Amino acid sequence: MYRLYFFLTIIVLTIFSSCVPDHPKGATHLVKDFNLAWIGDERNQGINLNHHKGEYGGDSVVVETVFAYGFDDEFIIAKQHPNHWTPLYGRLEIHGDGYVLLNEKDTALLKEEYLSEEDGKWYLTKEGFDEAQVSLYPNRSITNYYIISIKDYSFRFFNAEESVFMFPDESSFLKKRSELGVSESLSFTKVFEEFE
């Protein structure tokens, strides 16, 4: 009988331990139900709308990599570099000691020195693959600016399409900021220099 209990205990512990993620995670509560969170790699940090009051995770409002933010009771502002590595990774096939690109448009993201064209196909060297992981995750050549309006925030009725504004340049961001009445005192109070 004790062997049966021992055996069942081992099975239950094994099942529960497999449910616990084995990668590091972190979260910083910002304001209301919003947090800055990441799982696995700090470059994954984004702004989430949390369903569990202060825990990590939730629905993505701004995806990785958020490298600067500020907030007050009415708005959250953020700067973000996009992650171009993840979508690229799914569009490569191994070919010899390199990779073949499945979409010719992806060549625009990669340095020419690592690319070659042959028989209408584009090839990426192993060195280019390694370099792309670093340079495209995050892609520091692009900075997106965000304003998240939480002035009339209600968890049940938060509509990202009406409340989250993204801008590809600072001038557009500043213009919309003025239109929305974002306080001049609201600044990017937290900056992650390693991702800037």
Descriptive overview:
With 196 residues, this protein is of the alpha+beta class. The chain is built from five helices and 13 strands. Strands 12-11-6-5-13 form a five-stranded antiparallel β-sheet. A four-stranded antiparallel β-sheet has the order 1-2-3-4, with no helix packed on it. A hairpin with a 2-residue loop joins β7 (92-95) and β8 (98-101). The longest helix has 18 residues, at 2-19.
Can you describe this structure in just a few lines?
The protein has five helices and 13 strands. With 196 residues, the chain is α+β, with helices and mostly antiparallel strands.
Secondary-structure map:
Elements: H1 2-19, E1 25-31, E2 34-39, E3 46-49, E4 59-62, E5 66-71, E6 75-80, H2 85-89, E7 92-95, E8 98-101, E9 115-118, E10 121-125, H3 126-135, E11 144-149, H4 160-163, E12 164-167, H5 170-180, E13 190-191
Antiparallel strand pairs: 1-2, 2-3, 3-4, 5-6, 5-13, 6-11, 7-8, 8-10, 9-10, 11-12
The helix/strand class is alpha+beta
Secondary-structure element order, N to C? HEEEEEEHEEEEHEHEHE
Number of strands: 13
Query: Quick check: average pLDDT?
Result: 86
Low-pLDDT stretches: 2-23
| Helical proportion, percent range | 10-25%
Provide keyphrases for this structure:
32% strand; 196 residues; 5 helices; 13 strands; alpha+beta; 24% helix; 4-stranded antiparallel beta sheet; 5-stranded antiparallel beta sheet
